[in-house]
Amino acid sequence: MTVLTHNLALPGHYQRAELLAFHQRDAQQFAEQVNETTLAKGIFWDNTPARLRIDFQHDQAQAQLQIDSLQTVTSEQLQDWRLWLEYFLGLQQPITEFLQAHQTHPELGPLLSRQAGLRVAQTSSPFEAVSWAIIGQQISVAAALNIRRRFIELAGAQHSSGIWCYPNAQRVAQLSIEQLRSAGLSQNKARAIAQISQQLASGQMRWPQQITDDNLGQLRTALLAIPGIGPWTVNYTLMRGFAWLDGSLHGDAAVRRYLQELLQAEQLTAQQTEQWLAQFSPWRALVAAHLWQSQGFSG
């Protein structure tokens, strides 16, 4: 086993609760194990099962990655590990600029003040983000979590500690649509996950290191070309898998419902929600996260 460690200083307004709540969705703690101060999560690191553990203290996070193989770790790999942790913990998100820009907004400002320091919780990879988004389309959270658990058991692997690791695209690409359907996925969802997995595994599609103005349009086009992936799934993937915070989640039913409560409106259409969110660009997805959090929903 190879073990990587790193300690990170946390800003004074860091909120770990939203991160922990997002990874505590599955009450069976199949691939994530969470308590008030600790997160353990099974992931694939360089195609090898690994167990991530993060212990939170009031001003720092102590992280450890147990990789189920013996490796000689280079300085470049150590740097990748440290940068990935910053991404995963949301430390690169420009929340201070967002708060300064909109803390006096008549409708959103009071909510931002109550939830100052909120960050968008991240998945372990863009593939986890897009596959989870597809799994959860138009079904209840409970049903989605049940399918997610079966999907992990089907395509993932168990770490030596016992925790299950969320599969990567390379593993999923080896499965047939019939096998994916056995996890409870519909035909369309199984086909979408199979297609994106195969494109990633073959190199036909490549995730960028980060989202820029130059690659955003190309990535959107590639994802939208896959049947079963629409604008909401793309924006959710960008938000949870790349920490790109300008996706408009006006198509999200929970966002519309919570915005109606905030504005004390009887009913809002997706178009009205989109128009209201537009004023907060380039942080529209962060507004959605605040709306979710206001109702105790982790998205």
Automatic annotation (TrEMBL):
It catalyses: Hydrolysis of alkylated DNA, releasing 3-methyladenine, 3-methylguanine, 7-methylguanine and 7-methyladenine. Residues 5-125 form the DNA-3-methyladenine glycosylase AlkA N-terminal domain. It is an enzyme of class 3 (hydrolase). SMART domains: AlkA_N, ENDO3c. One of its GO terms (biological process) is DNA alkylation repair. Its EC number is 3.2.2.21. Pfam families: HhH-GPD. Residues 135-296 form the HhH-GPD domain. GO terms for molecular function: alkylated DNA binding; DNA-3-methyladenine glycosylase activity; DNA-7-methylguanine glycosylase activity. Belongs to the alkylbase DNA glycosidase AlkA family. This is DNA-3-methyladenine glycosylase II.
